[in-house]
Amino acid sequence: MGFAAAGLQIMGVAEYAVLIPVVASALLSVRRTLIVGLFNMAAAVAVYGTVLHDVMGLISQVTTITALAVALGVSLVVCRIRVAGERRFGRLMIARERLALLSEASAYVGSTLDAARTAEELADVAVRGFADHAAVDLFDCVLKGEEPVLGPGTDRITLRRTAQSGSALPLGGVRTGGVVAQCQGSAPAPDVMTAGPVMTEIADAADTNAPHSALVVPLRARGVTLGAALFTRSRSRAPFDADDLLLAAEIGARAAVCVDNARRYTRERNTSLALQRSLLPQVVAEQPAVEAATRYVPAGVRAGVGGDWYDVIPLSGARVALVVGDVVGHGVQASATMGRLRAAVRTLADVDLPPDELLTHLDDVVTRFREEMGGTPDGSRDPRSDTGGIVATCLYMIYDPVSRHCVAARAGHPPPAVVGPGSNAEYLDIPAGPPLGVGGLPFETAELDLPAGTLLALYTDGLIESPGRSLDEGLGRLRKALSEPMSSLEDMCDHVLNTQIGGGSRDDVALVIARTREFDTTHAAAWDLTDDLAEVARARDLASSRLAGWDLEELAFTTEMVVSELVTNAIRYGTGPVQLRLIRQSTLICEVSDSSNTAPHLRRARMLDEGGRGLFIVSQLAERWGTRQRPDGKTIWAEVALPPVVTAGT
């Protein structure tokens, strides 16, 4: 009975011994499972063959050892199947992770049309499970929107470390923004820039965080090499393999297209900005009527260049015209249209038209522009054209420093702000005409007298409109900003822009702030004359006396001739009352006004003609002359050059 019980116990131990390789196959590798199984069989042979030789029979021993051998074989097969499945599953998970990384790179990289930001996005994506450190080096010309030229015999390449990310130590220790000079044999080498991606191993990396495996991928799009991306791994991770190289090449190719799109957009934007700024006044000349400061702020990157413009135009009689306008839309087409409208405003201003008439003519100009560009006269879009209609807004103001009189009209434009001396800002109540190019309603003017030192603020809608606030809120903030005193107009412009748009605007902004001046008796004099020809001699005497008071006696003869001819024409061909006005500024301005709307014309008199020589004489004696219409008549003016100033020692 005791031997039988001992045999049963031994058989139970044998059964457990059979389970040993089976359990090992579920937990260990094939090699370790084999080792465990062989040790198990050796132990069984030793135990059953020597120690328990008398307890169990030979048949039981052979059966047990055979069972152990069969169990070992089955365990090896199962273990091999398990390991192969784990490897397939591991490769599937790695492929899934790589696909997820590629998908994330496609969605994340290229979210903006900024080359530097795109490089930062590429570096950030690469360190999310792929590399321990990533760096993106681009050519400086790419960041400026230009296309790099890389010849086949280039021995030295200079790149800019545009972006880098990761916790591992960067290769070469180059900081972001630093210069990366690549020579033959370095990474990335010139052959990499013209050939393809490479994988390298870095030896002698003593630090654990130091890179020991690197991938160099040239960023090439549309046949142009824009830079290179460098990915490294530290010793705490497995080195890159061939599949990683393919993944890096695919990510680099997609990122390169985004970088090239950003480069092309930067080039087009720079071209548009250059066009826009070349069409705006480069320098606002000093004006006797006002002190002016101007600003132009282009729109953000997403919006593109717009069609806002401003101008400060000198007019006859020391007057000045202040203009702001806005072409609806963005892009080069809007900038080009803006340039044409500004040139048209300049031309119409030279004719000395009132603001309402000028806007009427400008509306006709916009209509013709639309017809030339494929639109239709009624403002609808021509299906054969890609440009569509043109719509613009404009505000035109004229200020006279002698009378301190201001007249303004607007075409669909925001009203100007006025800040009187010691008072808060208010908006002028100017009738809002239709935008240019729309038509249908006439333009109306508003007139007011302004004290000297009054601030006038003209602006475009980009200054007051914002997606996060209402129009009334924008106007209120602008009123508050203009009401705060500043030491200079330049500071006032900066203060207004910082208050209204801060770091940038979705639309471009044009701003003009002017402080009015007044001409007193030391700069201007006016006399009323009757419609009697005897007043001609009196006009000459008045002009001569005024010139003596201004120490301009040497201009007396020329001025008397000009005044005599202008007053004679006004009395003979016009209707009273007649007014003579002299203005001393950079030139001596002689103005004669009457109630007739008939404009004189210069003609060359023949030998036997008794008349027709008056305006010809005026044109020869004066630097410039012209005529401007007024609501109650016309004014003929002429500018006589002042004598040169003689300084001491000259």
Overall description:
- β12 (417-419) and β13 (425-427) form a beta hairpin.
- It is built from 14 helices and 22 strands.
- It has a six-stranded antiparallel β-sheet.
- The longest helix has 51 residues, at 58-108.
- The chain starts with a helix and ends in a 9-residue tail after the last strand.
- The relative contact order is 0.06.
- The model is unreliable at 1-10, 381-388 and 646-650 (pLDDT under 50).
- It has helices at 2-27, 30-51, 58-108, 115-126, 140-143, 190-194, 242-279, 332-350, 355-372, 471-483, 489-500, 535-549, 556-573, 614-621; strands spanning 133-138, 156-166, 179-183, 198-201, 211-221, 224-234, 290-297, 306-314, 320-330, 392-400, 405-411, 417-419, 425-427, 432-433, 446-449, 455-459, 509-516, 524-529, 578-584, 587-594, 624-630, 633-641.
- By secondary structure, it is an alpha+beta fold.
